[in-house]
Every structure is written in structure tokens, then in C-alpha cells.
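Can't paste images in this forum, so I'm doing it all in text. The chain is below; anyone willing to post the predicted C-alpha cells underneath?
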Amino acid sequence: MARSEPASPDSPATGPAPSDDAAPVSDGTVVDLVATPGRGLGWIAFCLVAGVLLVWKLATVGQWIGVGLLVIAAIAGAYAVLGYVYPAGRIRIGGDQVELPRARSRPGVVRYPRDQVGAAYLLRHKTPWLKTAPVLIVEAAGRAHAYPRDWFASEVDQRRVLDALAPASSDG
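Text version of the structure:
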């Protein structure tokens, strides 16, 4: 393999030589998403404790509110379990193909030919409810894929995806 060969025959101490086959399979930009499944464990615990106390100690209206809190805790717990079970996913942008995860910590990816990517941009002000700004939006084949800021290690990763998609988004 080319990774173990020296950079030149007369300088073996220079380290591994860069080669074309050392590039990622997608032959382009690869950005890993970040999974934080334990981030909501405090809210899950609060909703569970408050929900149980409301159902146990109060009358009808308080019990309905308690049931609502228990449902919220169950949904948030299911999302946390999915975050532990599945890896966070990654965005791959190659020469002629774009691979986007369906959602963070969910199975499956969506692959599009590069020419089907209509636009890619950042929403900074009018973001969807409960999404951390800026939100990276990738429009492809009539669908919009939203990737909030907290799915990435830094805003620089969002910018890398945006810059890699820039030729595709400026064509259409």
C-alpha cells in the first residue's frame, strides 16, 4: 500500500508519501455528525419525577399534566436510546454523488447524484422551532434536509459542507 512507502527514495525518514488512494472512498468532503444522546437525560429525569408526583398527588387536571410529562419523558427517552444504539452518521460529498443521513443517530442514508442538489444554505435567523441556529439546509430532488448546529462539532463543519456543495448550488 502507498501509505508505508517513503516520500522519495533518497529521503526515507520523511514519512508516508501522500497518494491518491489514501483519499476517502467518496473522493471528496466527509463530515461526521456528533451524537450527544446523554444531553437530555436531566430533562428526562425531571419529567419522570414531576409526572409521577403529579399523577400520584393531584386531582384530574394535575394528573393529565403529569401524564403529559410522562409522555414527553418517554419520547425523549426513546430518542436518547436511539442515540446510543446507532452512530451519529456522516455527510459525504464526492465528485458525482452526495450522501446525506436521514437523521442524526438513525439508520439509513439518502444518496443523490450531484446534479440533483438544488441549493445549500445556512438559516441563521428564522430557524425551525427547537433547532439550534444556524441550520444547514440541503435541497435535493424536491426534498429539504435540515442539519442544526448542534449536530456538528463546530460551525466550521457546516461551512465545509456548504463550500463542498457550492458549485452544485450555484449551477441551478
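The CA atoms of residues 126 and 133 lie 9 Å apart. Residues 1-26 have pLDDT under 50 and may be disordered.
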